[in-house]
Design brief:
This protein is an alpha+beta fold. About 45% of the residues lie in helices and about 15% in strands. The protein is built from 29 helices and 24 strands. The protein binds S-adenosylmethionine. The site of S-adenosylmethionine has 17 residues, from strand 14, helix 17 and strand 21. S-adenosylmethionine (SAM) binds next to strand 14, helix 17 and strand 21. Keywords: TPR repeat. It comes from Rhizophagus irregularis (strain DAOM 181602 / DAOM 197198 / MUCL 43194) (Arbuscular mycorrhizal fungus).
């Protein structure tokens, strides 16, 4: 079925109540029967940090109630609410899934992201798949719910969700109600007036436990200290959200209690809610200026808020205070203060001068990117998320750019290799972290939203709910032509979805470190996606880019890759110029670009039908027949030399077809790589050498830096085999620079020890290339 047909089908036909129930029950059965091993592979964490929102009184206008039958696909129903009851068991994957029914008897699937009473999950279970029984404890059958601002979309059918490869056909999609904001999901009490006069078609027995833990506790009068103790218990079990709740209850009873406030500040810090942490310690310090822990946490909060200079003042002051204090009990705080101070000074220098210790950053990345062989999870809890500051050079600014909206423009001349921006991801999701989110369809552009993107939406929503002030930062990004504006501080999932669609960066692992850690890891299938704020203002060009991007963990570094004159727009490439026109167009369409007007796209659009046809024929023959033949012949006992002739012929003909635009002839890249290898296999190193040099030049013109180091190394190794060691070593130096310079910037003439630094990076990032170079006597 074509996408258009499928979408039309969703708009006109709804699945019957009975079919939905039958399918859902079948899915539950399917999950029950899956081996726990297989399920483990599917889940990451249940540690979402939100608590169930049970309310007796809610202010809702009955005439804003919407029935499931009136939900419109691809729409966030702002201001509306859905009244429904749970009619099936729940499954907790990334969201919590279940089936709900409205008072009219309509049934629909529902996915609640960021929603689960965290403290209901035993700490040790937070990283395993919850059973259907455990998951159903969150929303027992019969639970009455109000879902405010429901979002109705087309998403993977349930069976496609537990298929690690996702939906295989368009038929694997169904409608679903999605909510990302736990504040929008309200469990209502049975005797809530909203339920007056409502008769449910499905008269389910109420299974909500009448006496839950909380009401038992509620009967007892608790003191501020009881809440402190209970908060501490949650804190040590890493349940920081629950700890915050407990401390808050204590603070209500004793608003100036320094211990409760300081403890809550630490819990907020762990949740990355720095504003709230700062508020708490400010109160403590106003009453007790010598509260050491509060001062230390103030330093941490300011650091989290990127107010490094202020953090340094606070920490230096604290350090001084502690120097004159000889009490042994404060030794740990003394030590932590010194360590933190050093770290903040580093962040300050990064953010002010763009000075990054790249060796340390690569070390940190290599350590944090390690994956546990058994469960595909990170060895380090946070994965490759690095602790570094943002930097923005003063020489660029965002300005309106013709036909592209806004874009980064140079305010003055900028030399090649200049660091323009370093930025930490606002949020990032790696492939192994989105196993059981789902795919959905973007109706406007008729494109697929991957599971990683779906998970990214949920995480950004979570972050914005915790810190609404961040909404402004995210909502200033381009959200497409069709998006209407919601309130500035409200969490609008649809808008977040659009912002990700137009601004995401793929988290490429260009050195293949993640892949080499574990073969067939999910990371190899979908490396992940992230949202970076400042880099989102760079527009695209397939060729003639003047900015190069490098992603290390969750940090992105953007440098000029050629000198840029004042007033020029700074552009980078959203897709590889080595792809065909159609491949590039498809990829650009996903980024919201319909007609790229770069030199390459303009040329390819202007070429005659005849030329295009012939190019396609040559490339198709190469892909389907010549290429596979060459590859198998390269590894067979007898190499078929006649293939060299055919490869050369294809390259020559592609060259002829591009006529005077030889600098834009990128189509023969793979053929040339094969030709260089074929010559070596045929024992003709001399012939292979110029082709290898051509491949290197090609990679430079096409600006695909990820290939340039290896391309230079290939030239070096050919020279070495021809016993031309002087040239070989010169090319090895090129290979080293090609690897190191995109990371740390150009080596200057004064940097005489550049080789040592470059070798260190090469040994970390490209060990195979280094050992090959050693064997060939290049070091
Ligand atoms: C990541 S944003 C770039 C910043 C954006 N121009 C803005 O105003 O915020 C991507 C969007 O910019 C626009 N854009 C980027 N490169 C473009 C190009 N080469 N041609 C046309 N539009 C482009 C498209 O609307 C695309 O969806």
């Amino acid at each position: 079925m074509e996408m258009d047909e499928l979408l039309a089908c969703f708009l006109t036909e709804r699945k019957s109540r009975q079919l939905l129930i039958t399918e859902y029950e079948a899915w539950l059965n399917n999950i029950v029967q899956m081996s726990s091993k297989k399920l483990e592979h599917l889940i990451t964490t249940n540690n979402f940090g939100y608590r169930q929102n049970i309310q007796n009184t809610i202010n809702l206008e009955l005439n804003n109630r919407i029935s499931i039958a009136n939900l419109e696909v691809d729409k966030l129903h702002t201001g509306k609410f859905l009244l429904c009851q749970v009619i099936s068991k729940c499954v907790k994957l990334s969201p919590l899934f279940t089936l709900v029914e409205d008072p009219e008897g309509n049934v629909e699937r529902i996915a609640l992201y960021n929603w689960a009473e965290q403290s209901a999950i035993p700490v040790k279970s937070r990283k395993k798949v919850l059973t259907i029984f455990e998951a159903s404890e969150f929303l027992p059958i019969g639970t009455k719910l109000v879902i405010k601002n429901p979002y109705y979309q087309i998403a993977s059918s349930f069976n496609a969700i537990i298929n690690p490869n996702g939906p295989s056909t368009f038929i694997d999609f169904d409608a679903i109600i999605r909510s990302d904001n736990p504040n929008d999901v309200i469990v209502i009490n049975q005797n809530n007036e909203l339920l007056n006069n409502i008769k449910w078609s499905n008269n389910l027995k109420q299974k909500i436990k009448e006496a839950n833990k909380k009401s038992a506790v509620d009967d007892k009068i608790l003191s501020a200290d009881d809440f402190r103790q209970s908060g501490n218990k949650y804190f040590v079990s890493n349940d920081f959200a629950a700890a915050v709740d407990e401390y808050s209850s204590g603070i209500k009873l004793d608003p100036n209690n320094a211990t409760l406030l300081a403890n809550r500040a630490e819990a907020y810090l762990r949740l990355n809610q720095f504003d709230k942490a700062l508020n708490d310690v400010e109160i403590v310090l106003k009453n007790e200026p010598d509260h050491l822990k509060a001062a230390f946490r103030k330093g941490k909060a300011l650091c989290g808020l990127k107010r490094y200079q202020e953090a340094i003042v606070v920490l230096k002051d604290l350090d001084l205070k502690m120097q004159i204090n000889t009490d042994n009990s404060i030794t740990p705080v003394k030590q932590s203060t010194k360590t933190l101070l050093k770290h903040v000074e580093m962040l300050d220098s990064e953010s002010r001068y763009g000075k990054y210790d790249y060796i340390k950053i690569i070390d940190e990345f290599c350590e944090k990117v390690k994956i546990n062989q058994e469960n595909d999870d990170w060895v380090c809890e946070t994965g490759p998320r690095l602790d570094h500051a943002d930097f923005l050079i003063g020489d660029i600014e965002v300005r309106p750019v013709k036909k592209k909206g806004r874009g980064w423009v140079a305010k003055r001349d900028i030399p090649e290799g200049t660091l323009l921006i370093a930025s930490k991801a606002f949020e990032i999701v790696y492939g192994n972290e989105a196993p059981l989110s789902y795919r959905s369809i973007d109706f406007t552009s008729k494109t697929m939203i991957t599971a990683t993107h779906s998970e990214l939406v949920a995480r950004i929503a979570r972050k914005l709910i915790a810190e609404p002030d961040l909404c402004q930062e995210v909502y200033k990004l381009y959200a497409g032509p069709e998006i209407e504006n919601l309130g500035e501080n409200s969490v609008d999932v649809r808008k977040i979805e659009k912002i990700i669609k137009y601004n995401f960066f793929e988290t490429k692992d260009q050195w293949g470190i993640m892949n080499s850690t574990k073969e067939n890891s999910r990371l190899t299938k979908d490396s992940g996606a992230g949202l970076w704020i400042m880099p989102s203002f760079f527009n695209h060009s397939c060729v003639d880019t003047n900015v190069e991007q490098l992603i290390i963990g969750d940090m992105i570094f953007l440098r000029t890759c050629q000198p840029v004159l004042s007033g020029k727009e700074l552009v980078l490439s959203y897709c590889s110029p080595l792809g065909s026109y159609d491949e590039r167009s498809n990829s650009l369409r996903l980024h919201g670009i319909k007609n790229c007007s770069c030199r390459l796209c303009n040329l390819e659009r202007s070429e005659s039908k005849k030329v295009k046809l012939r190019q396609t024929e040559i490339l198709r023959t190469y892909e389907n027949s010549l290429g596979p033949q060459v590859k198998s012949s390269l590894f067979s006992a007898n190499f078929n030399s006649s293939l060299i002739k055919e490869l050369t012929k294809s390259i020559d003909e592609l060259k002829d077809l591009r006529k005077e635009h030889l600098d834009l002839e990128f189509q023969s890249f793979n053929i040339k790589v094969d030709l260089a290898a074929a010559y070596v296999r045929d024992g003709n190193l001399r012939r292979s050498l110029p082709v290898a040099i051509e491949v290197y030049k090609f990679v430079k013109t096409a600006q695909v830096p990820q290939f340039s180091s290896n391309a230079a190394y290939q030239v070096a190794s050919r020279y070495a085999r021809l016993d031309k060691m002087k040239e070989a070593k010169e090319w090895w130096d090129v290979a080293l620079k090609e690897l190191a310079e995109p990371i740390r910037g150009k080596f200057t003439k004064e940097e005489t020890k550049w080789r040592k630094e470059a070798m260190y990076l090469a040994e970390k990032l490209s060990p195979k290339m280094v050992s090959g170079a050693k064997n060939k006597g290049l070091l």
